[in-house]
Design a protein that fits this description.
The radius of gyration is 12 Å and the shape is globular. With about 110 residues, the protein is α/β, with parallel strands linked by helices.
Length: about 110
């Protein structure tokens, strides 16, 4: 689904892309499993993002639905709501993008 255009308020699973940015393969896998268990549709982007010391949750816009989805993802990964930010360039294909840094301690990895 990464190439599928996002329709706001779509009835399906909220779509999350995990993009490793210093996290281990094990942490990315654990994050994917935790998010799937929380009811998200998840894919791991195989391209490594620029290194990020801290994990961030990026939503496409500042709407209530987008920020709520970002907070839900943050909670599922054990991150504070302050980890959620709005994309500088909106991504029309996902509800939430996780830039997974080496700091994340997902439930399955704890």
């Amino acid at each position: 689904f990464p190439e599928a255009m996002l329709v706001p308020g779509h009835p399906g699973l909220r779509r999350v892309v995990i993009q490793p940015a210093g996290a281990t393969l094990g942490a990315a896998t654990a994050a994917r499993l935790d998010l799937m268990s929380a009811g998200f549709g998840v894919v791991v982007d195989p391209t490594e993002a620029e290194f990020a010391a801290q994990t961030s949750i990026v939503v496409p816009d500042g709407s209530a639905a987008s920020t709520a989805a970002g907070r839900d993802v943050a909670a599922a990964l054990g991150l504070p709501a302050s980890a959620v930010s709005i994309a500088s360039a909106p991504d029309a294909t996902v509800d939430v993008r996780v830039i997974l840094g080496p700091d994340v301690k997902v439930a399955r990895a704890r």
